[in-house]
Design brief:
Layout: H1 25-36, E1 47-51, E2 66-69, H2 75-85, E3 90-96, H3 97-103, H4 105-114, E4 118-124, H5 159-165, E5 170-175, H6 181-190, E6 194-200, H7 212-215, E7 223-226, E8 233-234, E9 239-244, E10 249-254, H8 273-280, E11 289-296, H9 302-314, H10 321-326
Helix pairs in contact: 1-6, 2-4, 3-4
C-alpha cells in the first residue's frame, strides 16, 4: 500500500476550533471536502485553499493544507498568481454568493473565461451572513433584511448562469448536506480547467430553510440529479425532462411504467451547452432543481498556455538583465552645470 492511500479525512483537518454558527451548512461542506480529499489522491503539501471574505472564507483555517485568507472578492487573483508560479499545485477557491458575485464579480468572470485549472466552490445561502443578514446578489425579490426592510426589489443573479455566460467549461450544483456532494467534488477535481460548483448552503440564522422546498427530506422528489449518459428523471423516476421541439424549451413529462424513452425524456449530455443553459434557468416549482454536473466541455488551461509561451520565448536565450533594461528607447542622463 503506498503512502497516498493511507491518508484519511483526519490528515486534512487542522487543530483549529471550527467557528461557524451551530447548524450552519458550512460544517457539512467542510466534512465532505475533508472526506473527499484522500480519495482524490492528492497530498496536503501540494494543495492550496484560497478564500476571500465571508463566513465560508474561514475554510482555509480548517484544512491541513496551504491556505490564503485574502481580501474581499479577490481570491481568484491570488489563485491565478499561485497557479502561474506553481502550476503543479492543486488550487481550490472557497467563496460565497456575496464575495464572488458582488465585489468579486469581475474577478470571478475572468478566472472562468481564462480557464485557470482550479476548483471554485461557491457557497450560496442567498444572504450576507458575516455582516448580519443584508441581502446579497442572489437574494430573491421580496427578501426582507436589515438593508431591505420592505423587501428587496433587485432581480437576483443565477450563479451558474453567470458562470456559463463567463465562459466556464465546467458547471455543477450540489447541496451542503446531500450524500452526492462528494461525487460532485470528485468530478470537479477531475476536470482540467476552472471547475465552478454552486453549493446550496443553509444559513440557519439569517435565511433558514430558504432552499427547503427542494432540499428537505420530504421534497427530495423535486431534485433532478444529472448523470452523463443517463435519462433526466426525478420524483422517483415517475417524471422526466423532455424537449418541446416546437417551443425549443424544456418541459416536464410523466413516465409510465418506467418507459422513459416513450415519454421522450432527454439523456444528459454535459457537452450540450444549449441544454445546460436551459437546465440552469429552469424555474423552480414548475420544474425541479437541476443538480450534479450540468455542463462540461474541457479546453486548454490558462496556466498551461502561459508556461508554454514563456518556454518558447526563452528557448535558446541566456538571461541578460542589462540587455532587458536597455531594450527599446533609452536615454543617457548627464549632469549639466546650473546657469548662474
Amino acid at each position: 500500500m503506498n503512502e497516498i492511500t493511507k491518508l484519511t479525512a483526519k490528515d486534512f483537518a487542522t487543530d483549529q476550533e471550527v467557528r461557524w454558527c451551530p447548524g450552519c451548512g458550512d460544517y457539512a461542506v467542510l466534512k465532505a471536502v475533508q472526506r473527499t480529499m484522500p480519495e482524490l489522491g492528492v497530498r496536503p503539501e501540494n494543495t492550496v485553499f484560497v478564500s476571500g471574505i465571508g463566513c465560508s472564507s474561514r475554510f482555509p483555517y480548517y484544512m491541513e493544507t496551504y491556505g490564503f485568507h485574502t481580501i474581499h472578492g479577490r481570491a481568484p487573483s491570488f489563485a491565478t498568481g499561485i497557479k502561474l508560479a506553481r502550476p503543479e499545485l492543486d488550487v481550490w477557491i472557497i467563496t460565497g454568493d456575496g464575495d464572488a458575485l458582488s465585489i468579486g464579480g469581475n474577478h470571478t468572470m475572468h478566472v472562468l473565461r481564462r480557464n485557470l485549472d482550479c476548483q471554485i466552490l461557491l457557497f450560496n445561502n442567498e444572504i450576507y451572513g458575516l455582516t448580519k443578514g443584508q441581502y446579497s446578489p442572489t437574494s430573491r425579490a421580496g427578501t426582507r433584511s436589515p438593508s431591505t426592510p420592505f423587501g428587496s426589489v433587485d432581480r437576483p443573479v443565477s450563479p451558474c448562469a453567470f458562470a456559463l455566460g463567463s465562459g466556464a467549461r465546467f458547471i455543477a450544483r450540489a447541496i451542503d448536506v446531500h450524500k452526492n456532494l462528494p461525487e460532485v467534488l470528485k468530478a470537479a477535481h477531475a476536470h482540467k480547467g476552472a471547475s465552478f460548483v454552486e453549493i446550496y448552503q443553509n444559513c440557519i440564522v439569517y435565511n433558514d430553510d430558504v432552499f427547503a422546498a427542494f432540499t428537505a427530506k420530504d421534497n427530495a422528489g423535486r431534485q433532478l440529479w444529472l448523470k452523463p449518459g443517463e435519462p433526466m428523471l426525478f420524483d422517483g423516476g415517475s417524471k422526466g425532462i423532455a424537449l418541446d421541439r416546437e417551443a425549443l424549451a424544456l418541459t416536464v413529462v410523466d413516465v409510465e411504467g418506467g418507459d422513459w424513452q416513450a415519454a421522450g425524456v432527454l439523456v444528459h449530455d454535459p457537452m450540450n451547452r444549449s441544454v445546460a443553459h436551459m437546465l440552469v434557468e429552469m424555474p423552480f416549482g414548475a420544474f425541479p432543481t437541476a443538480l450534479g454536473v450540468l455542463y462540461e466541455d474541457p479546453a486548454p488551461t490558462f496556466e498551461s498556455a502561459v508556461v508554454r509561451q514563456n518556454a518558447e520565448a526563452s528557448a535558446g536565450k541566456k538571461p541578460d538583465l542589462q540587455a532587458l533594461v536597455s531594450k527599446g528607447q533609452s536615454w543617457m542622463v548627464t549632469k549639466e552645470p546650473h546657469a548662474i
